[in-house]
Every structure is written in structure tokens, then in C-alpha cells.
Amino acid sequence: MHPACNPSPLMATCISTSPDDTLALGSRWGRNAQSGWLIGLSGDLGAGKTLLVKGLARGLEIIAPVRSPTFALLHTYPGGRLPLVHLDFYRLESPLQIHRAGLEDYLTCPSGVTVVEWIERWWNVTTTPQPDTPARRASPAHRAADACLSPAPPPRDLPPGVRYRHVRLECLTETTRRIVYEDFGP
Ligand SMILES: Nc1ncnc2c1ncn2[C@@H]1O[C@H](COP(=O)(O)OP(=O)(O)O)[C@@H](O)[C@H]1O
Ligand SMILES: [Mg+2]
């Protein structure tokens, strides 16, 4: 069953009521994906980002199991209709750290289908001001909560020619997710 979607030319909202719904949405995107697509995922821990990537891999006919690259930062999956590059910026706090980790080229020149968890670390969008205490900075939970407030990224920062899908996943209940996505670029 497909998640309920409310499509518009550039932005859509889907309500997923189960992990299978989220897998089906990712799979649909994978079947339609074209080379050079960049997909940025933003949402709290447990929102379903990795599950959406598993769906993407399924839609791209990738057989290898998808595992979260939280520690490796990057996994690549050849062998499908298009190669899938899966990045996770959870452990990187800023565009500078992403640059220093040598990952910038994956964003500016995506090949195959490139999907990024915690994309807000790259866009570095400002959020509703929060008390900026050392304890807050040190707490991943608070950083994640702050990230959830991020608006869509500014499309002006997109490299020319890159087709970018920005995706926000929010937990509504234990099994319900709101998935909002917006497309930028050609
Ligand atoms: N509708 C849903 N969509 C996605 N995940 C869901 C849903 N309902 C429950 N879940 C559960 O939420 C968790 C999502 O995990 P994961 O995809 O690893 O999240 P993230 O990568 O965002 O941290 C899984 O345990 C999954 O079973
Ligand atoms: Mg994940």
C-alpha cells in the first residue's frame, strides 16, 4: 500500500502509517530515480530516514542489505539499476567538518543516486534560537531536537545542474510519520 500523498508540482506531503509504507515510498522514488539525483533527509533519530534509504535501494534493485553508515559516514551500493551512495552526517556538525572529511564532492557532484541522512548539517540552516549552553551543545538529543526545527534549505546554495530532493520526516505517533519533500533544480 502506498502512503497517502498530497502531491503538488514541487512539494508533497505523505503520511506513512507503518514501516512498510515508508519502504514503499522510498522504493517508488528508487524506481523513478535518475543519475545525478541528490536526496537530503532531515529528521530526528528514529524518524525513518534509514528505512526510506532501504526502500530506495529496493526500488533501484540493489540486493545488498542497507546498513546505516553512522560510523563509516559513507556506504556505496553498486549492482543496481544505478549505484546508490548513502551518507550519514550525524557525527559531523558543520559544513567545515563535512568538507574536512572529504565528503563535499558527493554533494556538489553527485553520481548515481546520492542520499544523505542529517543533511541539515550541510545546509547549516539557522533554527529558532535556542539557549546556547555548553550542556546543550554537548547533547546529541538537543542537537537533534534543534535540527528538527530546520526549515527547507535555501535552493540558492545548490550547485548548478544538481537535482535535489529535500525531505523532512517527523514522528507523529509511534508508527505514523509525516514525510514532506520538495524538489529543487532541473
Ligand atoms: N511509519 C513508519 N515509518 C518509518 N519507520 C517507522 C514507522 N513506524 C515505526 N517505525 C520504526 O521507526 C524506526 C525508524 O528507524 P530508522 O529508519 O533507523 O530511523 P532514522 O534513520 O531516522 O534514525 C524503525 O524501528 C521503524 O520500525
Ligand atoms: Mg539512520
Query: Helix proportion of residues, in percent?
Result: 25-40%
List low-pLDDT spans: 126-151
User: How does CATH name the architecture?
Assistant: 3-Layer(aba) Sandwich
Mind telling me the CATH class?
Answer: Alpha Beta
CATH superfamily: P-loop containing nucleotide triphosphate hydrolases
Oligomer state equals single chain
Main sheet attributes: strand count, strand direction, barrel closure: 8 strands, mixed
What is the count of β-strands?
8
Overall shape: it is: globular
Strand content: 25-35%
Order of helices and strands: EEHEHEEHHEHHHEE
Mean pLDDT: 82
- Our Rg estimate from Cα atoms comes to 16 Å
| CATH fold-level assignment | Rossmann fold
How would you describe the overall organization of this protein?
The chain is 28% helix and 25% strand. The protein has a single domain, classed as Rossmann fold (3-Layer(aba) Sandwich). By secondary structure, it is an alpha/beta fold. The model is unreliable at 126-151 (pLDDT under 50). An eight-stranded mixed β-sheet has the order 1-2-8-7-3-6-5-4, with helices on one face. Helix 1 (19-32) packs across helix 2. It contains seven helices and eight strands, in the order ββαβαββααβαααββ.
Give the helices and strands, then pairings.
Elements: E1 4-6, E2 11-16, H1 19-32, E3 37-43, H2 49-59, E4 74-77, E5 84-88, H3 95-100, H4 104-108, E6 113-117, H5 120-123, H6 134-138, H7 140-147, E7 163-171, E8 177-184
Parallel strand pairs: 3-6, 3-7, 5-6
Antiparallel strand pairs: 1-2, 2-8, 4-5, 7-8
Helix pairs in contact: 1-2
The structure holds adenosine-5'-diphosphate and magnesium ion.
